[in-house]
Amino acid sequence: MEFSKGSLLREITFKTSRSGGKGGQNVNKVSSKVELNININTSSLFTEVQKETILNKLSNRINAEGILQIITEEYRSQLKNKERSVEKLLMLLKGALHKVKARKPTKPGKSLIEKRLKLKQATALKKINRRSNLWD
Fold first, then answer.
1. What whole-number distance in Å separates Cα of residue 37 and Cα of residue 62?
2. Which of the residues 44, 72, 105, 134 could staple to 85 if both were Cys, CB 3.0 to 4.6 A apart?
3. What integer is the mean pLDDT of 115-130?
4. 13 touches 89 (CB < 8 A)
């Protein structure tokens, strides 16, 4: 991933509006709700392979035009909401572009097998000793 916060800011557009919910007079006066938009299809930050990966993994957050939208209204401050939405974008992109390591199948070691068998035998002996001898 060759992108940084500064390079992302060049491709991001912000739209602000009045936030809903609690807040009293502040809600009615201040446009603190922030909507972050970035067009994945036209972005020059990502390679074609990265664009495909992002479009596939974040398909539920991307609309038909290829715009990734993040809405934040956690704080009463517009600036804090803008910063939080950029953080969310970075987390989403890093998560989408993260490549999972392929698991190498391994076999259990000899000591682990011996330990398991000893535990099985100890449990079996414990249960045998609990039995009452009805035919003695």
1. 10
2. 72
3. 94
4. no
Phi-psi region of 88 (alpha: psi -120 to 50; beta: other; left: phi over 0): alpha
Q: Look up tokens 């936030």; give the residue.
A: 19
The span from the CA of 64 to the CA of 106, in Å, is 44
Which DSSP string corresponds to 1-53? ----HHHHHHHEEEEEE---SS-THHHHH---EEEEEEETTT-SSS-HHHHHH
Report yes or no on whether pTM surpasses 0.70.
no
End-to-end C-alpha distance for the chain, whole angstroms: 76
Reported as a single tens digit per residue, the pLDDT across 24-72 is: 676 667 778 888 888 888 888 888 888 888 888 888 888 888 888 888 8
Q: Please tell me whether residue 73 adopts helix, strand or coil conformation.
A: coil
Apex CA 57: angle with CA 53 and CA 59, to 5°?
110
Angle in degrees, 0-180, between the axes of helices 48-57 and 78-97, rounded to the nearest 10: 110
